[in-house]
Design goal:
The protein is mainly beta. The chain contains 2 helices and 8 strands. It has an 8-stranded antiparallel sheet, with helices on one face. The two termini are 21 Å apart.
């Protein structure tokens, strides 16, 4: 559940000249949000905000109530690390994230999540609020 937030944090980089990988990323200070219902478990709200060129915040409310950070590599936008809060969530719930991207045309973040512990798979879409 908090792992949903972690996938969102992977988009912490900006579209600046250092971005030689030609990756579109959300603008700094925009907030993206979604509400997910996990059958028989409950609901989770995920908020993502890029706060610096190489840092994003993920806020979880619902089943999990946590705030965590994602730190991006200055050399490679696909290379990122989670803070201890998000790392613990990923490990605890055995989460995996697939195909994360920022849809610049529709201004939304999209990724797939798999939570092995719950046998849960879902396409996640975070929309700008």
């Amino acid at each position: 559940m908090q792992s949903l937030l972690i996938g969102t944090l992977a988009f912490s980089l900006s579209n600046t000249p250092f971005n030689k990988y030609n990756v579109n990323l959300p603008p700094i200070n925009n907030i993206y949000k979604t509400h997910i219902n996990i059958p028989f478990i409950g609901s989770q709200i995920i908020e993502y905000e890029r706060i610096k060129n190489f840092e994003s915040t993920v806020r979880l409310n619902g089943l999990l109530n946590e705030v965590g950070y994602i730190y991006m590599s200055k050399n490679n936008p696909y290379d990122y690390t989670f803070d201890i809060v998000l790392e613990n969530i990923v490990k605890k719930y055995k989460c995996e994230f697939y195909n994360p991207y920022y849809d610049i045309d529709n201004d939304m973040i999209v990724f797939k999540i798999k939570i092995k512990l719950l046998n849960f798979k879902k396409n996640i879409i975070l929309k700008k609020i």
